[in-house]
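Ticket closed. Logging final result for Arylsulfatase.
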Amino acid sequence: MRLTVFALAATSLPLSLGLSQNADQKLLGAEQSSFKEHGEKEARRQPNIIFILTDDQDFHLESLKYTPLIEKHITNQGTFFKRHYCTTAICCPSRVSLWTGKQAHNTNVTDVNPPHGGYPKFVKQGLNEKYLPVWLQEAGYNTYYTGKLFNAHTVLNYHSPYAAGWNGSDFLLDPYTYNYLNSSYQRNRDPPVSYQGQHTVDVLANKAYGFLDEALQHQDRPFFLGIAPVAPHSNVEAFALDGDVGDIEKLVHFTPPIPAKRHAHLFPDVVVPRTPHFNPDSPSGANWVRKLHQQSSDNVAFNDHFYRQRLRALQSVDELVDGLFARLEGKNLLDNTYVFYTTDNGYHIGQHRLQPGKECGFEEDIHIPLIVRGPGVEKGKVADIVTTHVDLAPTILELAGAPIRADFDGEAIPLTGKGIEKAEVKGERHEHVTVEFWGFAATEGKLWRKDEGRLILNNTYKALRIVGDGYNFYYSVWCNNEHELYDLKADPYQLVNLLHPDEAAKAPSTILGVPFAKVISRLDSLLFVLKSCKGQTCVRPWQALHPAGNVLNLHDALTSRFDYFYETQQKKVSFNKCELGYIVESEGPQFETDGLVYRHGLRWDEWV
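Final structure:
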């Protein structure tokens, strides 16, 4: 196997009766003029949208506490969505899901590199013509983007083809994407330019400000501006564009992020938060995670340094945001501009004994920041609703007044206070997140033990996060068919896998007032639907199981009359084989072909 390393309507108006032809023509002209003016006013009312997408930024490691300018301009002036999740905890699949509104199993971009992922896979899947900037241009927007778009978008393939949908672009390209002091950007149709010796986020900031100025030269059209700094991702130097997976140490070199010199002295005493699951005395999790050794004191000290470097690298992003808002205020644009701030996936450092990295289903990796400010968005609000990356494309299209695609796997996020309150009403919004991953996990820090290598290849799993009235669960099935369940109300740090034999004694006899096994059967059936869902089934999975519409959430599904359906009839989530990408034949039973639905209040066998 090879690893490619990249560190790419016209309106018809009737003639009025009783008027002369000339009068008709004058009236028609006046109506058409009025219609044109109305259309121009409508266009002017379309909001501008700025989307800031950092790389690997954490929520649970508290990085936002160290970005006071982001807090000042966005958090304090907008709404923080405290239950926001990515659906695949790695860069390229997550970004493709974000921009397409589809789960990774529906884009089939499931890795950062070919053959299962990266920019070439994005193009091969026909997605270069079917993602957000293309739809926004169709809605009348000018679109701009600078920074990292996708992995494997390189100095060699950036024009094969060019990324569609952008009026102006200046992309950060592999193999220099993660090299903080030797970045390579490619503007519009020009060849790539190297910025050796300059800090990549400072380069990006100037490009972002330039695109903002360019957008303002076309004030007859609203604009979308995407800004994607690489911070706080690890610094990665790539020595070749492709090679064998086993030779990864010869292909790339990982170090902590490199901050700008002006920030290198900051936070000298800060350490990774010492939560109960930081380098715990006992193993936790499942599969390869449970086999990890406790980290040495030297290892922990280095990881604290790694953490400080992430915080320092984020200071340039903080300054970028400050400069952006200075320009927006100076141009009187804030009253008609939405600003989104999020990241592609989260990050762990030391939790569950893990070395720096992502790609797991733990909260550190999938639970990420989302902050929005703009017209009608309540200031200083914290929203409890569950939101995901596949909800963002529909959200932005709704703001733009553009049609919402029927094949979206997510739904628009309400941004106003009233909209959020309505969504919090029982049954008004999904309470789940579909989490999925294929392939390997990578250690980005130092290698401290010979028996813990850079890559772990059996890291394929399907999982479910569900948060509702009185419950908060994470349930997963790995490709080796190991299972995990965490009750995050009782175990917020996910230290007790209630389905692992070593911890079975800690499993409660009842949850939510019913036997433990009943809850497991419902969660497994829900994941059974979600792991291969499409479109509205991803948003309303209970309706796929109960077409009568009498089950809207986990509480409803626990009714005893459904016991036989869930516990006996329904097939279970399982894998036939561990793969490095989405190979449906290896993913066990599928709901579309092997699942059952509960109809008319009768069991399936009674109904047929």
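Residues 1-44, 601-608 have pLDDT under 50 and may be disordered. No further action required.
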